[in-house]
Amino acid sequence: MLDADRLSGLVSDIYGVTLDPELWPNVLRSIAEFVGGAAAALMAQNDDDRDGSIYYDSGGIDPRCIQFYVDACITLDAASAWPRFARAEEPVATADLIAYDEFLQTKFYRECVRPQGLVDVIGAVLDRTATSIAMLGVFRRRRDGLVDEDARRRMRLIVPHVRRAVLIGRTIDLRATESANLANAFDGIASGLFLLDAIGRIVLVNAVARAILAAGDVLTSGGGRLTASNGEADRELRDALAVVRSGNGGITGIAVPLIARDGARHVAHVLPLTSGRRRRAGRGYAAVAALFVHKAALDAPSPLEVIAKSYRLTPTELRVLLAVVEVGGAPEVAATLGIADSTVKTHLRRLYEKTGARRHADLVKLVAEYSNRLIR
Q: Which CATH class is domain 303-375?
């Protein structure tokens, strides 16, 4: 079993970076150790300029290797463009994308992985917009071995908290929280945000939170005090605030499930504002806790995920399909993926057989049609 205290401490540290981003390198070192790896990094792809960026890394391997990995995801080399289509928070290892013997032939492996003594990478999408993708990656050395089920399980435990911390931190930076424009900054958050005092009275809300209160399905306000519509959820919310009030909660975020009157499920996360820089964030408002509320929902399946299931494509066939859409014909695909022309042609024949396509343009049209179907 996983060490519960260790996990709790790590989650606490993850939420600590929301108002103190300088802590990210230390937190990433702890994440790498917890998942079972030599290093970890927060990375981004930018579709506008086809560039990749490293937000923070733990140290331990050459940053140029991490940069190579981000760029490889963009150019479809080695790791393919999995971040464009992977389900948010779902761990993705090398074996999910490409046969390992093929991976050993790629430029990414030859020029980065092998020289650094690495053997595998496990990554997860944290956030995706129309033009950029944020990712977490953990890099494994030979002593760590290839990604196994234990590493995937540990990654699944950590990624939701990292994702939430990144989204919160992106909107609420320290400069905003120390300015008179705090309320305006909060209105830019997609989740409902309530700043609460020690007994649960509402000190400040953002636009989404005001809409939640107006609906009265999940949370209500009586006498200025926040109350959950469901009795059991309300007791859990009071208990979480009691932990914050007592000071025993440290800086750990506490998740509270909420149920609307119609049965819809929401999740609230109580983030204490009682230590370090967070105290300054809530000081002007007598707030001791920030409550983030969002509807619990699974991410919609990606277009390529649906195509793969519909036509029973292998991971390598899926990579070739995406490469055809992105870069063109067989020679270009072979050069981009770092595999032989003959291998690409074999996979193309199978793609034509499985999808009924007759030419490259048909494959491009297929992906476009599925993408539009999911966007509507």
A: mainly alpha
